[in-house]
Amino acid sequence: MEKLPTPPGLSPDKDVSFRALRVFSEIMRTGSATAAGKQLSLSQPAVSRLIAQLEANVGFDLFYRDRGKLVPTADGIKLIQEVELTLSSLDRFNSLVRDIAGYSAGTIRIVAPPSFAEGILPDIVSRFRERFPGVEFSIDSRSVETARTMIAMRYVDCGFLKLPTDESDLAIQQIVSSGSVCVMHENHPLAALDTITPADIGQHPLILLGAGRYWRTQVDSSFAAFGLRPVVAVETHTHGSACALAAHGNGMAILNALLVKPYLHKPLVTRAFDPPILHEYAFAVSNVSRPSRLTLEFKNEVLQYFGM
């Protein structure tokens, strides 16, 4: 029987070195073989040898030289995304091996909304690391939509999401619910009130978060119930920046009572906002596979932190 020709590309008897893939990824990231070598503790000849080996394995050029610089080819650019996913999978495998061996090492990758990552998460991580000081954390702050995708696709081990959200492909457990408060300078005209309504606010300038998001529609609806529209002086995206703006007298901020706590210093004061607007958060993991023991241990820490 006539042997079928082998198509161009990787030959079945050639194994691609993970080390070569890391070199390729690092050159694409830094744009320099020299910088990649320094980052990976490899000599220049070793970097060149590994790239040449990888190009021989895959059967096409990944870079070309332009005035002494390595420039990725179109094929190299097409390949990098898959290489990054492969290396990420290998990192997860290595992390899992360390996790199984014990909690003396390992990494927990977390994603959370920016204000949650800045305001609440540091306390939880610090408590966990008191028990397991060898555990490393990688914390990413993204929008709810991006965070949800990262958790479902297992780019991270776990995350925190504001509810409601699409729960498909996720295993979700609600962990905390909090109300809303008005944050203002202590000399603000409405600081004398115990509870503030949209009618009280009237035409006073506001500092608001999340234009176009569900939370913002709730604020707009609460004003509409009084036949009013909020007068927005500043729009921002984090509780920290909103509090800083309020402290400088730029207006009153309506914020999450839980996430605002780390930023409440003089001259700021808070007053209850009525009607109540609730903020609910959940701990989430992908439901594609069971979380690692380390992730589950961190989840237990989260539940204890919120008294669950």
TrEMBL record:
<dbReference type="GO" id="GO:0043565">
    <property type="term" value="F:sequence-specific DNA binding"/>
</dbReference>
<protein>
    <submittedName>
        <fullName>LysR family transcriptional regulator</fullName>
    </submittedName>
</protein>
<comment type="similarity">
    <text>Belongs to the LysR transcriptional regulatory family.</text>
</comment>
<dbReference type="GO" id="GO:0003700">
    <property type="term" value="F:DNA-binding transcription factor activity"/>
</dbReference>
<dbReference type="InterPro" id="IPR000847">
    <property type="entry name" value="LysR_HTH_N"/>
</dbReference>
<dbReference type="InterPro" id="IPR036390">
    <property type="entry name" value="WH_DNA-bd_sf"/>
</dbReference>
<feature type="domain" description="HTH lysR-type">
    <location>
        <begin position="16"/>
        <end position="73"/>
    </location>
</feature>
<keyword id="KW-0238">DNA-binding</keyword>
<dbReference type="Pfam" id="PF00126">
    <property type="entry name" value="HTH_1"/>
</dbReference>
<dbReference type="InterPro" id="IPR005119">
    <property type="entry name" value="LysR_subst-bd"/>
</dbReference>
<keyword id="KW-0804">Transcription</keyword>
<dbReference type="InterPro" id="IPR036388">
    <property type="entry name" value="WH-like_DNA-bd_sf"/>
</dbReference>
<dbReference type="GO" id="GO:0010628">
    <property type="term" value="P:positive regulation of gene expression"/>
</dbReference>
<dbReference type="Pfam" id="PF03466">
    <property type="entry name" value="LysR_substrate"/>
</dbReference>
<keyword id="KW-0805">Transcription regulation</keyword>
